[in-house]
Amino acid sequence: MIINRRKTPFRYELKEAVAFELQFLSINGMVPPQKPVLAYLYNINRAGCRIWMPLSLPIDNSNIAISMNIVLNNEPITLKGVLRWSLPHQNGYYYGIELDASDQERERLPAELRELAGQNRILAQ
C-alpha cells in the first residue's frame, strides 16, 4: 500500500508557459515604482507557483510582495504573493511564489485548474 505523506497540494505544470504582467507591491515595506514586468507562469497550485522573469532580485534578505494579473482561461485572475526562492535560468530567474490569495481567488483557482486540465493544458505533479 502506498501512503501519501504530501502536506501541500499537487502542483500543476503548464504544458506551455503563460505570459503575464507582474507588479511589485512592496520591497521590504517600501512601495516601489509601479512599472509592470513581463513574467511567465510555469506551474501553480493553491499554495504557490513558479514563475520566470528577467530580473535578478535579492530574495535571501528581502520581503518582496507581488501581484500577478494572469489569464489562465478566459477571465483574468489577480493573485498576490511573496517571493520565497530564486534560481538562475536562461538569461533570467525562476522564482517561487507563496500565494496570499483572497478567499474569492482561492475558490476560483481550482475551477480554473480543472478547466485547464479539461483542455489538456496542464499536468499534475
UniProtKB/TrEMBL annotation:
Residues 35-109 form the PilZ domain. This is PilZ domain-containing protein. Pfam families: PilZ (PF07238). It comes from the Bacteria.
